[in-house]
Predict the 3D structure of the following.
Amino acid sequence: EVQLVESGGGLVKAGGSLRLSCTASGFTLSDYTMDWVRQAPGKGLEWVSSISSRYTYIYYADSVKGRFTISRDAAKNSVYLQLNSLGAEDTALYYCARKYISDHDFEAFDLWGQGTMVTVSS
Amino acid sequence: AIQVTQSPSSLTASVGDRVTITCRASQGIRKELGWYQQIPGKAPKVLIYGASSLQSGVPSRFSGSGSGKEFTLTISSLEPEDFATYFCLQDYSYPYTFGQGTKLEIK
């Protein structure tokens, strides 16, 4: 089955760190650009970070730049998000998503994981 | 960063109604906008990409249009399973930005 499974979320104190993992099954994750998107409780979606298939580029939202680090490991068919210096504003459900690129170079997040919850306590 | 303004924030409609949701970008983004549906407790699901391309497996009652700064998602005849929250996403340039969401509720 083609799927993404996130893990690594939990309860952490403000200023703490977590490492989120996203592991793919049913396809080769290293063939795709992968992104992280988060959703605070009861709120909308916020794009967080992107890493291209060959590490050609990495991008971050301004809200996490300098604190979060995205990476990938082809051997483990996984992508990661290291979260440092966490604050209450980082409390959210974190999704990883696969980027599909069409024949006309349009993009879409065509596969999402179920999300992993990060809760930052003060 | 490109701002995306989505409207309305909520919408009440009946099964069989035609509904339209709009997203406006703060600058031109060609056709690089997608629409996503999110059912409570579930991950988002792509409906439309490239402003008007229907994702495989998505019913044809969903359609998208627009280019440049203004985009619309239309559901031609609402089904019970369509009551959800809808988001647009500009993927023209980083940082990507989502619209604020439209919660579609049943009348």
